[in-house]
Specification:
alpha+beta; nine-stranded antiparallel β-sheet; six-stranded antiparallel β-sheet; 7 helices; 35% strand; globular; START-like_dom_sf
């Protein structure tokens, strides 16, 4: 990063969210805890949203970050395999280790899983997560602090030179922890910046009509609404033409598929909400549904995001947790699609069919 800032006087920012994604993926994915009966391993980081910057003014370097994270884990208890999620609503520059909150969920919950899995996560895994989050700010400054300043030998102001020196004295006392490379340790020499496009906002090439290509920067979100209904009934709500029209309060316009069939199947395409939402069914199975989804005003017109819906039913608690991994969303549209789905799908389904309480 080239800096033109005489005496390091002016405010300079560096966006480090791509590096943060690589950092946490390397530190967290594969993290495992065990006891005599149970094993839990973090399998993926589904989301990392928010702001992450290193800044400087008048020679003083600071890190500013406020992040929200979603993790998936899997494991085995007495030979029974299970999956779940851990959401961390805030990882902030001014948080202490005790401030971090962890929302732990077990898919297909049973009393046995709750009694064994959640205590193991809270007693063994959560302390390790707290340590990693607490170390993040220091590693962020060590890795990126020098990138936003003119070197000390080019600074003529004693005031800013003193601030610059003081900013790094403490973090230089200890060597930096392992920094991410975007792949597993020891398998690549790529730098964080060289893999940023893959981790932060995947770049997709889509052919417009004709030879011209458009690059779309995309991101991913993760949702986990719960419904007081069996998984089969909830799945039917997303593919039954009549139910779709009932909760959307709009006409279903079938643009591809069998108009006489009451239920949608793979390959069918349709529009809801007066044509403002276009959907294509990719695959349907007993416990999952994959759809391509777009808003009518997205550009290019051929671009669709991809929604993976997994239906996790807990017969003991008479509910189904809908795990949604939503990829290929154009950057800047994340809040919009999240709010649309929560209001016009989740909330509308609960109100229309009585599938759960609405707050």
């Amino acid at each position: 990063m080239v800096v033109q800032n005489p005496n390091n006087w002016h405010w300079v920012d560096k966006n480090c969210i791509s590096w943060a994604r690589d950092y946490f993926k390397e530190k967290l994915v594969g993290l495992q805890v065990t006891n005599e009966q149970c094993r839990v391993e973090i399998t993926s980081m589904n989301t990392l949203e928010g702001d992450c910057e290193v800044s400087q003014r008048k020679g003083k370097v600071i890190s500013l970050f406020d992040l929200q994270m979603g993790l998936s884990y899997s494991g085995e208890l007495d030979g029974e395999k299970f999956e779940g999620s851990i959401n961390i609503p805030e990882i902030a520059f001014d948080s202490s280790a005790e401030d971090y909150q962890f929302e732990v969920a077990v898919f297909k919950e049973t009393s046995k899983l709750n009694q064994e899995v959640k205590p193991l996560i809270r007693e063994q895994l959560v302390p390790r997560l707290r340590n990693i989050f607490s170390q993040f700010g220091e590693d962020l400054l060590i890795t990126h602090g020098n990138d936003i300043q003119v070197s000390e030998d080019e600074v003529k102001s004693n005031f800013t030179r003193a601030n610059q020196k003081a900013s790094f004295e403490q973090v230089k006392k200890a060597p930096p922890s392992d920094t991410p490379t975007g792949t597993a340790a020891g398998t690549s020499t790529a730098t964080p910046s060289s893999v940023a496009s893959a981790s932060a906002s995947a770049k997709k090439e889509v052919l417009r009509q004709g030879p011209e290509k458009t690059v779309v920067n995309t991101s991913e979100i993760h949702l986990e609404p719960s419904f007081n209904v069996p998984a089969s009934e909830l799945l039917r709500t997303f593919v039954d033409k009549m139910r779709l029209q009932q909760f959307s309060r709009s006409e279903l316009r079938l643009t591809k598929g069998d108009s006489s069939a009451p239920v949608l199947s793979a390959g069918d395409e349709y529009q809801l909400f007066g044509g403002n939402v276009c959907t294509r069914i990719v695959s349907v199975s007993e416990k999952s549904l994959v759809m391509q989804w777009r808003l009518a005003d997205w550009s290019p017109s051929s671009w669709h995001s991809t929604m993976h819906l997994e239906f996790h039913e807990s017969k003991e608690y008479h509910e189904t947790k809908l795990e949604i991994t939503w990829r290929d969303i154009p950057v800047g549209q994340e809040d919009r699609v999240r709010q649309n789905f929560e209001n016009y799908y989740v909330r509308a389904i609960k109100l229309t069919f009585g599938f759960g309480a609405v707050l």
